[in-house]
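Subject: sequence -> structure tokens, single chain

Hey, anyone have a minute? Need the predicted structure for the following. Not urgent.
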Amino acid sequence: MKKLILKGSILVFLACMGASDMFAQQFESEEDSLDCLRNYSLYYEYYRQGDYERAFPYWETVYEEYPFFRRSVFIHGERMLDAKLEELEEDKEEHEKLLEEAMRLFDRRIEYHGDEANVLGRKGRFYFRHNNVIEEAGPGYQALEEALEAGNRSAPVMVLYMNVTVGKFHADLLDNEDVINTYVHLSDLINEAIEETDNDDLFEAKDVVEDLFADSNAADCDALIDIFGERVEESPEDKELISRVHDLLDEAGCTEEDLYYYTTERLYEMDPSASSAMNLARMHRAIDELETTREYLKEAIELEEDSSNRSRYYLELAELVNNLEDDPELVREYARNAIEDDESNGQAYMLIGHLYTEATDCFEDEFEQETVYWAAVDKFIEAKEADPELEERANEFIEAYEARFPDQETLFFHDFEIGESYTVGCWINETTTVRAR
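Reply:
Had a minute. Here:
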């Protein structure tokens, strides 16, 4: 064992001698250079064996006297301080002193080796790993804030910063505006980072930050209006601001506030789009201005390029027209358009099925009235095939309307056999299959 340690020490010493040429000009004397290398080689041997207690005094000499020597000295020190702090958890006074020393280590690392954004992020995360008392969050919170200002866009730093912000808010150390502004700022940073690098961690961070904000209850309607109402009024052409305020109001459920109506209309005026037209449609529908709703729905459909979204808009239009007027053929046309854009839109099939069940007044003959249920059940079957989540509901309607099929005696009387093809007349004009209840 001694021989192995000696061999390792010699290798470390030789490596340090190679490095000493690079830093020779920073040592005041050859004696300092040799002292640094000797302490480095001694601490490093103990460090790599995991014997932090024996490594620490030699490491401390290098760290205090020769901080310019190597960046790895700070990395090793961080790991050793991390372990020592865990051992001191029960000794609050000593734990506090050592944590302060650890904060100093990060500052000195930046001073001598740069990499400010990364090191400040590590500093903040280190602090909260060893002190999660929100009233004492100052040093760690400041480190995270400075890390973000310096350009740190790592997911852990942004999530932790939002988490601590919410914690400080719940402890009455920050107000609603602080939380809202932090959320807006972090959302912008995350979106920018996602554009630069398609990283799964960033997408996850985005979700976590949004959840933390939503659960904080900081963004109530009154707070949002107080914070952003005047800003929007002063900057009616600031599309980014108005879009952000609109989204915040929407997320907070403030869709009946005047500010929400105003931002919705401004977004549409500045940049007519499918989404802004749909927002206006839903806004007018909420206040029963249904004809205006219909016009905006049509415009949203015309502007929408995504077939899945357009399918949903067509379905909304079909349901609206169904409530507005007695025109089942037009309703079916819109529902069929929805299916054409997205075959998995089971709700559109369901709507057509219900239209058929209500079409018995198309016929005077009782047998013909019962045939509409064949066509209706066909649609309910198609609905559950298109969208399995509708199966239970569709089956309820299938069972209910199969009970209204003609009986076998009626089929015999009208000269039909089970399994034959049959075309339901009137506006339905659907070819179906003869069945009995």
